[in-house]
Amino acid sequence: MITMTLEKKLERSKSTENVDFSKFQSINNSDPLAKVVSSDKILVVPNWTVPDDFEGRMYADYISAHPEYDGVYVRSELMKRLKLAARCLATPYKLVIRAGHRPIAVQKRLLKECAADYKRDNIGVSDKQALEHARMFVSDPDISLPPHVCGAAVDVEIIDSHTDKYLDFGSTMNDDNEKSFLYFPDLTEKQNDNRLMLTTIMLDAGLASCKTEWWHYSYGDQLWAWFYGEQNSLYSPIDI
Asked: For 161-196, how does the pLDDT look when each residue is reduced to its tens digit (9 = 90+)?
């Protein structure tokens, strides 16, 4: 494992290296899923409770058929690191958890609809091109170990608990365009500062960032294995 300072982690988060994540196969760690709950520094706002959330409506449909799936879940080691990250936020900020584990049925639907949306909005695009675009933002469970399906990833934001306003990150969560990229160049100084604050606390807690999604961080998946110089990822897909 590579030992890195926070500065080195931040530099690695800017990497544009083309990585074959498939070589980081899972050791099938049995670390169980744990339910994330709100606390003084963490606010759980599941995406299926947010009106018009593209991904949330897919969770909502799944939950209607599986009512026992009643919360946001992550691997227990990831839970510990989320708590560490949240404690690093200055008052009055809280870490907002929007999504964690994702059922494989939701993952497949998300990929399919992301590709369909791109094809509809870009006349002349082939099915293959649309799928390739969608795979930039949604892991394909047929060819990889999707971080969310493994319970190894979270989607997060920050809220000011004094004003109940979310910080401005320059795009909404789950935008499938370049504004979602962690280091998108055309941001205001404040938007850049907000992204840096979020990235700093998450990397400092031992998570890995995602270059195409400013809100996405992971622990124990294939991206994390590459980021920290591990030979294998920790987790495989899991359903509950």
From this structure: 999 999 999 998 877 789 999 999 999 999 999 999
Q: Which residues contact 121 (CB under 8 A, 6 or more apart)?
A: none
Task: Note whether 157 and 98 are within 8 A (CB).
Answer: yes
Helix (H, G, I), strand (E, B) or coil at 83: helix
Helix intervals (H) in the chain: 6-12, 56-65, 76-87, 104-121, 127-134, 189-204, 222-227
Domains of the chain: 6-227 (3.30.1380.10)
pTM of this structure: 0.91
Residue 184 tokens, joined: 């998108």
Amino acid, single-letter form, for residue 9: K
DSSP conformation class of 155 = E
SS3 call for 206 = coil
DSSP letters spanning 58-82:
HHHHHHHH-TT--S-EEEHHHHHHH
Closest of 196, 233, 222, 193 to residue 9, by C-alpha: 196
